[in-house]
Amino acid sequence: MTTLTTTPDGSAARRSAPPASPAPAARRPRQGGTVLAVPALVWYLVFMVGPLLAIFVIAALHWPGMLQPVSFAGLDNVRVVLDDPVFWDAVRNTAVQLAVAVPVMIVCAFMLGYYVAQRPPGHRVIRYLLFIPGLISTPAKAMVFYAALSPDGLLNGGLESVGLGSLADAWLASPSTALACLIALDVWAGIGFTAVLFAARLGSVPDELGEAAQLDGAGHWRTMWSVHFPVIRDYVGVVTMLQFLWTLFGSAQHVLLLTQGGPGTSSTTLSFLVYQKAFIAADLGYSQTVGVLLFLVGLVGLLTIRRVFRQNY
Amino acid sequence: MKLGKRWLPAHILVWTYAVLLVVPLYYFLASAFKSNDEIFAHPFAPPSSLGLGNFRTAFESADLGLAVVNSALVTLLSLALTLLLAIPASFALARSTGRLAGVVEKVFSLGFLIPTFAALFPTFLLAAATGLFHTRIFMVLFLPATALPLSVVILVQFMRTIPPEMEEAARLDGASTFAVLRHVYTPMCLPGIATVLLLNFLTFWNEYLYSLVIIGPDPAQRTVQVALPTLKSITGTDYGVLTAGTVLTLVPVWLVYTLLQKRMQQALVSGAVKM
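ok -> structure tokens follow
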């Protein structure tokens, strides 16, 4: 039941509202007002879809700066990007970030969600606290981590006070720990809110399911993974997709606020590279080429996660 | 289900994480009232006095007062525009049975998956092309577009639950389409509107990267999220001021969260995975 069988239908079937049945249309005459959707649609096309399509155009341009002449470059940018060691550093960092942050986040959040859904003593307090990361802004989160991890910050102070001062480090400015700090931020902020989502969904799983499993002698560990997980598998997939996207694209802000991609390229991620090449290095074609690649990575990841978590009972 | 003794490790792990969530916030709140010396000497001791000196410094050195006003303006106007666009659109989509409406609805629900970050640079170009670069106006126009997919999807779901008989009755009394929207649909989906408002209040107030790139660093225009990180460089490592500033930006969100806790939690949970 829990094996990951992939179905031949790999299309991005989506849970959307079922197509409206023709019955009501026949029953009541058209009442007008459909035109009211036009402003929103126009807004959406101008500010969201248009810019998104523009990425693909700019990626094919040679454009060395805002006020510089633009010329068509075709696939030249792709060649430049693929030959650039910085790009491959960013690929490596993003891969590490995703491979560590997303699974840790989802697994911990699922267990935490299961815990909260059992209503142990104090679950209300826990639930209240778990929302915290979902409420505070990215700059505020970055300030928290800056205060905790800077050379004279909380962590070093704590280490010194327990006599481990020799372990103290400039965490954000050290090539070996900068990326780890960013991953820690993702995980710290991600677990809480994701757990709340899982807890809410697990709350609607009938109690009888778990009780039946317990009568058969299954412990909580078994119940959690072989009863509850398969039931909400589809939902876990959707949440994983979202966390994957947020981690992939959202890392630009964390990097910008905490490490600026450094030292060297040790914490440059793909999405930060898009930002840096556009707004700091002013190599616009390069930036948007990475943007296109990032977009494709997002799409492929999305479809893969979708397929892995397909409901299969 | 009973939780036996074997749950002890689970309890410990969960509460450790809870402490990790609370400690930074406590540290920030306490440090906001302390001097740097006090912070380094006793990081976790409660403040000895509740002087507002750090807040005053934060206000003055980064123009935080002005930034709060800017953030409030952008947030409120964007919320108003979001509703103005999303309510009629959802009304149209919820009532329509045509194929076109189905396509439009699908387009909106797909938009939920577009990470806004992806189009940062083209949006920046759009701002420059429309002459609205370095203005708050562009953000007020732009933010609702990012919020539309989710808002429309949530509102359509609410409006579908309104029985068609309500509209038929209003029609018999001679109500126009607009009157039906105004007097039947809008009042009946107020809970949905509240959800949309709360969710978007959070996203708009907390928005950082677009505000940074489009509004820019001009103290007269910038929002509080853009002003906050500048405290780091202005004050060097004056943690008292840094934490006071951070606490200030959290106050509006905290107020709303504490006042509307249940509703906010529902909104966040339903908003995250509506697709």
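Residues 6 and 307 of chain A are 6 Å apart (CA to CA).
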